[in-house]
Specification:
By secondary structure, the protein is mainly beta. The protein has 4 helices and 32 strands. It binds copper (II) ion. Belongs to the multicopper oxidase family.
């Protein structure tokens, strides 16, 4: 969202575009005089003007690989959420986190990687062992949130990308606390994932209403990988040559704790809520700027952008290398794509091969990021140089006698996804994205189609039907829109003149090049990094983005469960600060 003014710790207020200095000076002085919460440091932490993190040496710590749990055996696996401390960098004290694990001792950020096999259902029991009476990252009680009457930290886990019954989908109101209190849509802590879907990289993370941003930033996230050995391309890099990379950003205090704002942009309305959380430290698998020693071989990296709000445009510093993208959110692409850059919004997964085999031993290759924050307009304050580096790969000699396996880049991986319109009627939904600001232009929140989370359900697709969603973004920022249960195809996007639209000088009901049309171009195909089966897609500002959605599993077969029963699904913005306030809507399947 737009950042309209900055409050500087010295008490100076800089107004960039809007008036209202006096009001904000007043509220600022009130805050300084102790009318608001303060951090554990006795120091306020201002939204979008966080104190810089301590300087850390980059690329000194090795990349950790999360432990794996085989969930294909049919035996129920218990995964708890625990309060832990974990070192995020060797030069920092340990950081307090909430993290998933099978015990307090083994819980970690990321949580264990759950290894599933297609057609073998996984049974996961989620438990909440967080002892706190409230979350250690401040909750803004002025936005709609779980608000357990008896206190505690509510959690509920969503498996992002799963084709799962809704009582196992982690409904935001299906939360539960360690004290036994539950949200009004709670059904069970015992989840079943059918794993009938095609092989893909999924990830699990917290989804509690109103505090998802807090719980995910606190550490509640992990990988979930569905494999289908008989259907996957042969000779892909595997074992130590297949590496999950969970990328996040955080801002940290010198004592290692997470610097989370306690003063929002519009504190009279939302004391602590911040339109976007951007950190100046880049972490991969829970370590700041790690390095990975690689042999001269092909590696497969399953990358997830698990940041709260930061988009990533990843590139490799070695000009002779490219990303060979083989998969996306919904599984394998039809054929590999050779790319110099990967743009990944929060929630995106990208499955790539990188071939280090021709590089001399001793070469260092850096994984860099050049995405502006907020995306795409950008403000240098939120993309300090530290965020341009993500991690390093160091080419090392393999041990004597170690034979590097000969991995292959597949030529094709499956059929080309083609939008079909075989059902009798195609439902077309026009859905707007709108940001609401206070009198000074500071964001108060944003909504989907002018509805809040609490409004009655309006998206009620019929199982098996085809729908075209036209998402019209009237806000200044891009939003990664995520739809639960299904994978969709990005059809096209089309820019319009928002100034003329807002002035009432044109209409979106007429198409380009009609003289009264607001559109300034014909529909444009998505760029190569946004194709394939997706469950999360970047919806650009001042554009209409059109999605083709068939309400079936990705393989086109009937759901092997009843998608109509249970608490239902959701669709939302995957900038977690937006999702919490209030860019999330219920999604109810109908027969
Ligand atoms: Cu958003």
């Amino acid at each position: 969202m737009t950042k309209n003014f900055r409050q500087i710790a010295s008490g100076k207020v800089i107004v960039s575009r809007y008036d209202g200095v006096v009001l904000h000076m007043l509220s600022f002085l009130l805050l300084l005089s102790g009318f608001a919460f303060s951090t554990a440091h006795g120091e306020h932490s201002f939204c979008q003007n966080l104190t810089a993190s301590p300087t850390l040496t980059q690329f000194v710590d090795p990349l950790p690989i999360p432990p794996t749990i085989d969930v294909s055996t049919g035996v129920q696996v218990t995964l708890g959420a625990y309060k832990i401390t974990q070192k995020l960098h060797s030069e920092l004290p340990a950081t307090t986190l909430y993290a998933y694990g099978t015990s307090e001792k083994t819980a970690s950020l990321p949580g264990p990687t759950l290894e599933a096999t297609r057609h073998k259902p996984a049974h996961i029991r989620f438990e909440n062992h967080i002892p706190d009476s409230e979350t250690f990252l401040i909750t803004d009680t002025t936005i709609h949130w779980a608000n357990p009457a008896r206190g505690g930290v509510p959690i509920v886990t969503h498996l992002h990308g799963a084709e799962a019954p809704s009582d196992s989908d982690g409904h935001p109101d299906g939360w539960f606390t360690a004290r036994g209190e539950t949200g009004h849509k709670f059904v069970t802590q015992n989840y079943t994932y059918p794993n009938s879907q095609v092989a893909a990289t999924l990830w699990y993370h917290d989804h509690t209403v109103g505090i998802t941003r807090n719980n995910v930033l606190a550490g509640l996230a992990g990988f979930y990988i569905i494999r289908s050995p008989s259907e996957e391309p042969r000779n892909l890099p595997s074992g130590r040559f297949e590496v999950p990379l969970m990328i996040q950003d955080k801002q940290l205090w010198t004592n290692g704790s997470i610097n989370f704002p306690d003063v929002g942009d519009s504190p009279d309305n939302h004391p602590n809520w911040c339109p976007e959380y951007f950190g100046d430290i880049m972490l991969v698998n829970g370590v700041a700027w790690p390095h990975l020693d690689v042999y001269r071989a092909k590696y497969r990296f399953r990358i997830v952008n698990a940041a709260n709000a930061r988009f990533l445009t990843l590139s490799l510093s070695e000009p002779s290398l490219q990303f060979i993208q083989i998969g996306t959110d919904g599984g394998f692409l039809p054929f590999p794509m050779y790319l110099d850059n990967l743009t990944m919004a929060p929630g995106y997964r990208t499955d790539v091969i990188v071939d280090f085999s021709r590089l001399p031993v001793g070469t260092a290759v850096y994984l860099n990021n050049s995405a502006p924050a907020p995306f795409p307009s950008g403000d240098p304050d939120f993309s300090p140089p530290s965020t341009n580096s993500v991690m390093a790969f160091r080419v090392v000699r393999e041990p004597a006698g170690f034979r590097i396996p000969q991995f292959a880049v597949p030529r094709t991986m499956g059929p080309m996804p083609v939008p079909s319109y075989d059902s009798k009627s195609v439902m077309r939904r026009s859905l707007t994205l709108v940001e609401n600001d206070d009198a000074d232009g500071n964001p108060l929140g944003a909504v989907l189609n002018n509805h809040t989370w609490m409004d009655p359900v309006t998206e009620t697709p019929k199982v098996g039907s085809v729908e075209i969603w036209e998402i019209i973004n009237f806000t200044p920022d891009a939003h990664p829109i995520h739809i639960h249960l299904i994978q969709f195809l990005f059809l096209n996007q089309q820019a319009f003149n928002q100034t003329a639209h807002d002035a009432g000088d044109c209409t979106l009901d007429e198409d380009f090049p009609h003289p009264e049309s607001c559109f300034v171009e014909s529909p444009q195909r998505p760029d190569l990094t946004q194709v394939g089966w997706k469950d999360t897609v970047i919806v650009w500002p001042s554009k209409v983005t059109r999605l083709w959605i068939k309400w079936t599993p990705r393989d086109g077969l009937p759901f092997p469960f009843n998608p109509v029963s249970g608490p239902g699904y959701v669709w939302h913005c995957h900038i977690l600060d937006h999702e919490d306030n209030d860019m999330m809507r219920p999604l109810a399947m109908l027969y």
